[in-house]
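Example A, followed by Example B.
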Amino acid sequence: MPGNSKSGTLERPRPVLAITDQITIQDWELTEQFIRASGPGGQNVNKVATAVELRFEAERSPSLPGPVKTRLRRLAGRRWTKDGALIIQCDETRSQARNREIARERLAELIRKALVAPKKRRPTKPTWGSKQRRLKAKKERGEVKALRGRVDGSD
């Protein structure tokens, strides 16, 4: 049967990264490139490409709603490319698999932060008491500064 695996059960395309119960990132949205890392590791650093560069096609992603993409762009900063991709690099450990996990977790955390809509700021007016305290402090400060003037020598 086409579409079935060897065990006889139907195989569904698995999401690569689950962010929340509703949001999952598919395989085609992520690209990983392994590069040589700097830092500790001795000869291992020179031979093995352990650092990972994770590229998430955020702008084209059907998984994320528009407002979330906008907040993600702001949170990503310099990691956001001109073509709408988010690039996360990780070379913390000597293990390629661990660096891959760290990069994916960073991506998931960044998306989770972008999911939270900021509270709307309601402009408030200062209370009458706070205005009075401010004016009193200004007056006292002015008096202190006035006393610093030149001393008149006509006594």
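Example B, a separate protein, is given below in the same form.
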Amino acid sequence: MAGHMVSGKVERGVLHPLAVARGLGASHTGTEHWWLQRLTSIALVPLTLWFVFTVAQFAGAPYGAIVLWLKSPLNAGLLILFVAIGFHHAAAGLEVIFEDYIHHKPAKLTAILIQKFFFLVLGVVCVVSVLMVALGR
């Protein structure tokens, strides 16, 4: 039963004890979303440090030196990973903000869909750009 008995009626909106034990909220994705946000945070620490030190190393360098650096599969792969994980982390964080602060359901859904589409398009553009430079096109 999805609720508790109150005066012979089932009270709606109360979580089933099994859902509470599994750590699932009303949307049934709270724990997974929380863990994914933490894992992407952890992954971004070394990737961000790598990116910052790399950008600092190329301060004032000619474009050709950066292109040559990006032709390395390791560097191109790390940059794509940084972009993909970074945009996913940002989209997930913004989704939580929308869920917490937008109370009108259609507006909340619209905002979430627009931001996911925005981050997806931006991420694809960045990845394609990295690949084009790395492959010399």
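On Example B: The chain is about 75% helix and 5% strand.
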